[in-house]
Amino acid sequence: MEFRIVLVPIGDIEQNLLEKLKNELSIIFHPLHVTISDAISIPKGAFNPKRRQYYSSPFLKALIKCVNSKTSKFLGITSLDLYTNGLNFIFGQAVIDGGVCVISTHRLRPEFYGQPYNEKIFLERSTKEAVHELGHSFALKHCPNPRCVMFFSNQVLDTDLKSKNFCEKCQSQIMRKQSYKRIDD
Ligand SMILES: [Zn+2]
Ligand SMILES: [Zn+2]
After folding, report:
1. Which of 26, 47, 85, 103 is the most buried (most CB within 10 A)?
2. What is the phi/psi pair of residue 10, to 5°?
3. Residue 60 CB partners (closer than 8 Å, separation 6+)
4. Is 133 an active-site residue?
5. Contact (Cβ atoms closer than 8 angstroms) between residue 79 and residue 117
6. What is the tens place of the pLDDT at every residue in 117-159?
7. Gap from CA of 137 to ligand 2 centroid (Å)
8. Which ligand minimizes its atom distance to the CA of 101?
C-alpha cells in the first residue's frame, strides 16, 4: 500500500493555498504522495467565546475520524485562530508519531500583524508550519538548529527565520521511518 499525506481543509480554505502546499510537500516528503481531500466542517463546540479562539483538540479529533488507513498522515488546515491549554495561541498541533496534525493560517498572514497582503510570505509560512507538524507526526521532536523546520516557533519571526526543510539530522531520522521504507518494498 502506497503511503500518502492527505491535506484536509477544515471549513473554507482557498484552493491556491492547498495546491501550493501539495506541490511543496510533494518535494519535501518525496517519494510520498500528497493528495487533497474534500473539506470537513469546523468541529462543533471548539469555539471559546471568552477567548474568541478555537480549542485545538476537537480539530485533531475530527481528523482522527477521517483516518481510514494506517498508511496515511492527515494534515488539517484551518484559517481559524487555534489555542491549547497553557498557550495564548498555536500555529499548529500534531499527535506525535500519530496519524493526524493541524495547522492554523490565522497568524501566518502579514495582515494579522498590520502589514500589507503578501501572498509569497503567507505561502512560505504555511509551508513551514505544515512541514513542521508533519515532522512531529513522523515522530520528530523540536530541533535546536534555528534554520531547521523543526525549530520551535514561538512567534512568526521564528517561522520567517527557519527554512522549510529538515536539517540533515532530522532528515535522516525521518527517512528511517517505516512509512518511507514501505515505499521501497
Ligand atoms: Zn512543534
Ligand atoms: Zn533539525
Report:
1. 103
2. -110, 110
3. 76, 93, 95, 100, 101, 102
4. yes
5. no
6. 999 999 999 999 999 999 999 999 999 999 999 999 999 999 9
7. 15
8. 1
Cα separations (Å) of 142 from 54, 67, 118? 24, 25, 28
Q: 18 CA to middle of ligand 2, Å?
A: 25
CA 142 / ligand 2 centre spacing (Å): 7
Cell of 173: 531520522
Exactly one of 14, 24, 133, 168 is catalytic; name it. Answer: 133
- Residues forming beta bridges with residue 10, ordered by sequence position: 40
Ligand nearest to the CA of 131: 1
All structural domains of the chain: 4-179 (3.40.390.10)
Q: What is the model's pLDDT at position 185?
A: 43
19-57 CB burial, b ≥16 within 10 A, e <16: ebbeebbeebbeebbbebeeebebbeebeeeeeebbbbe
User: Per residue in 26-80, pLDDT tens?
Assistant: 999 999 999 999 999 999 999 999 999 999 999 999 999 988 777 799 999 999 9
Residue 74: CA count within 13 A, CB half-sphere: 22
- Cα(185) to ligand 1 centroid in Å equals 31
End-to-end CA distance of the chain: 10
Strand ranges of the sheet holding 33-36, from the earlier edge strand across to the other edge: 33-36, 4-9, 72-78, 100-104, 92-94
